[in-house]
Amino acid sequence: MSGLLILIPVALFLGALGLGAFLWSLRSGQFEDLDGAAHRILSDDDGPLDEPDNTPRK
Amino acid sequence: MTCCAPGVEAAADLASEVPEADDDLLRAASRNLGDGKMQIELAVPDVHCATCITGIEGALGDLNIVDNARVNLSTKRVRITYHSEDGVPPSQLMDTLKKAGHRAFLLDNAFDDRSDETMRQLLRALAVSGFAAGNIMLFSVSIWSGADEVTRTLFHWISALIAIPAVAYAGKPFYTSAIGALRHKRLNMDVPIALAVGLALLLSIFETAVGGRDAYFDASVTLLFFLLIGRTADHMMRERARGAVKNLSRLSPRNAVRHMPDGTRQIVPISEIEPGMLIVVAAGERLPVDGMIVAGNSELDCSLVTGESAPELAKHGTEFLAGSLNLSGSITIEATHPAGESFLARMISLMEAAEGSRAGYRRIADRAADIYAPAVHILAALAFVGWMFLSGDWHLSVLNAMAVLIITCPCALALAVPMVHMVASGRLFENGIMVKDSAALERLATATHVVFDKTGTLTEGRPRVQRQISGSAEMANRAASLAQFSSHPFSRALAAAFDADRIEIGETREVPGSGLEAKIGNDVWRLGRADWCNAADRSNEGGSQVWLSRNDEPVAGFSLADQPRADAKSTIAELKRTGIGITLLSGDQADAVQDLARQLGIENAESNLKPQDKMDRIRALQAAGEKVLMVGDGINDAPALRLADVSMAPSSAADVGRSAADFVFVRDNLSAVTFALNMAKRADRAVKQNFGLAIVYNMIAVPLAVMGFVTPLIAALAMSSSSILVTLNALRLRLGRNSPATKPDEADVPHMMIAEPAE
């Protein structure tokens, strides 16, 4: 039982971390162009996204 | 065309083909981000690899005015953020792309973020419900494997903590749709879903509070998760198709050049054109309004307007409708109608009036919900009443009634349709057919009669060389060399049909309405109309004629005609074999239509039809109980496309035609029609099988639920297995042959491009 008290919060925290990471990547536009992402890996200059998609969202 | 290694040649080709975009148009299509920054989205249909991406982004990034350019390969667009500096026109963007060897087009209302936002919302809901479902399932499994009472209650509480926000958030798409339906006093599939999810949650919270044995948190959240998968996939598929269709709708000038009484020229918005104004129309442009030619010689291609396949000679006094394409020389027209009453505007208002037959259509899923929802709710109520009567224990009765609601697997039912549609539209997309609306897929499956337009639909909509009437093979090559200097459709056909010889050609001159004149050495060569080349007119033999002459002596003649698409005949035969009625309705001349009908084996063919006549014929068919599939491309077909039960248009169609159609096919083969019909029928069968599966399932599970044997474990198993079964059945649509693709998209070959209509 005492093991559960540590493990459950840890499990939930890790899960929430994954969810948060997904929501962040969604917001920063990483799912906008999946085909492009697959091809961009081939180009030499691997700088980060120039700037996050800064279009106003409602 | 290869965009990866654009040479000078490619750039030269592009120069003639991509319409000049003026700065005003670019500015109008941009949106203001503040701080003097502007953003614009352009369609770049040819990008397909990493080199294209870096090429475009590099070329644009080198410009001073560009802050950021990013290519989206999935949507085949580039989004450019730039700042408007004084003296640096934004048309520089287009020029740069052109020089880099990429075709770029302005899009009509590119910034439509609404669908984007829906997608994002669905993905967020999907992630949240996935997270919740996974974690709750973890606890549920522990409970099912026999946790003691304290642990069980603890786990129930933790599950509740996860489930409550998750259901509240992730269920939003279903609640809004269910409430919307109820408000219109209708039932749709989302009503029982919202009820099952909500009630399961409430009951579970209650059970947890009283320390009960069974809670259905996992069922409630997993149900949402599965349904969201279906809905997201369906939405993704549709958006992909819609985006591809939208890339075809190019922004056209909203201005026209007015010839003022004092001889000067002035730009006026098309909407302000009044009858009597003189408008200058350059070669390659479409008439902005209906008008009468008052100056200039040219030929006009009316194929999208009237269905007439041969170009018409434009001379003083002839009248033309808006949308006709000016082929060779600059002309001046006198507007006969204001823009609001032009041919195009009349077609659009006819189209709006023709909405009828579709508005009444209810989707299969909604019709199923009509039967399913009341049945389930009555059943649950009966279970409650029955248990109350037998045991008198209201807690037990509610529990069992709940189990009925959850076990009747709205999940499989709700997935039955979207899964099938997703797989079917994905298959169609791979075969070059875009489905704009998945209800159209259902309507297509019921089609019993196909109505074809002729020009541009059954035929290719552009002339091809039929045969050489006279002259030697060398002369054919000479004609092809000369033809390279002109962008007239006849010249393009000649250049495509024969190899050009490598002769040095001097000065060339295009004589509007007549042809092309060139000097080779001391000889004057002409390529054009028979009378202009001093040849006997033999056009009564059918087809249009082009002659080549040297110093006024005809040396070769060619007969050109609009040819049927390569697989038109086999497609018609295939349709006949499946017992579908076929009618050909054309606005073209009787002999051209009859000729084609005979060639393809179509018995019902009518010619010289006005747009209203086409609508009347379709109404008559519908009155006789037929479900009509209309396949057409012209502006004159648009009302008929909208009136028919379901409609298809080739991607070369006029903008109005394309937007009126449910399906757009991008490849050059007409077998898209049979392929789509077959796929729609298979999808229809799969949907019905899925409903069948769900019903069989319920017949087993519902009695168990009513009798009170259903535990949360059984509910979870039933739900998951039925959903998987339904999904697997949908995936069967991926089997089977693809549509035989003709040569890689002919639209990719630059000189074959069909000019876009300007509306």
Quickly give the structural class of chain A. Answer: mainly alpha
For the record, the count of structural domains of chain B works out to 5
Q: Which two chains touch over the largest interface?
A: A-B, 31 and 28 residues
The pLDDT mean of chain B sits at 82
- How many strand segments of chain A? 0
Percent strand of chain B equals 15-25%
Computed CA radius of gyration of chain A, to the nearest angstrom: 18 Å
What is the count of DSSP helices of chain B, taking H or I runs of 4+ residues?
A: 25
Report the structural category of chain B. Answer: alpha+beta
Coarse morphology of chain B: elongated
**Oligomer description:** heterodimer
Mean pLDDT of chain A: 77
The string of secondary-structure elements of chain A, in order, is HH
How are strands sequenced across the largest beta sheet of chain B? 15-27-26-25-16-23-24
Biggest sheet character of chain A: none
Uncertain runs of chain B = 1-19, 742-759
Number of helices of chain A: 2
How would you explain this protein's 3D organization?
The complex is a heterodimer of chains A (58) and B (759). Chain A has helices at 2-27, 34-40. By secondary structure, chain A is mostly helical. The termini of chain A are far apart. Chain A has a domain at 1-28. Residues 51-58 of chain A have low confidence and may be disordered. Chain B has 5 domains: 8-111, Alpha-Beta Plaits (2-Layer Sandwich), CATH 3.30.70; 115-245 and 360-423 and 680-734, no CATH class; 255-341, Calcium-transporting ATPase, cytoplasmic transduction domain A; 433-459 and 565-679, Rossmann fold (3-Layer(aba) Sandwich); 461-564, 3-Layer(aba) Sandwich (Calcium-transporting ATPase, cytoplasmic domain N). Chain B contains 25 helices and 27 strands. Chain A binds chain B through residues 1, 4, 8, 11-12, 15-16, 18-19, 22-23, 26, 31-36, 39-43, 45, 50-51, 54-58, and chain B through 33, 39, 49-51, 53-54, 68, 70-75, 113, 117, 120, 123-124, 127-128, 131, 134-135, 138, 151, 158, 162.
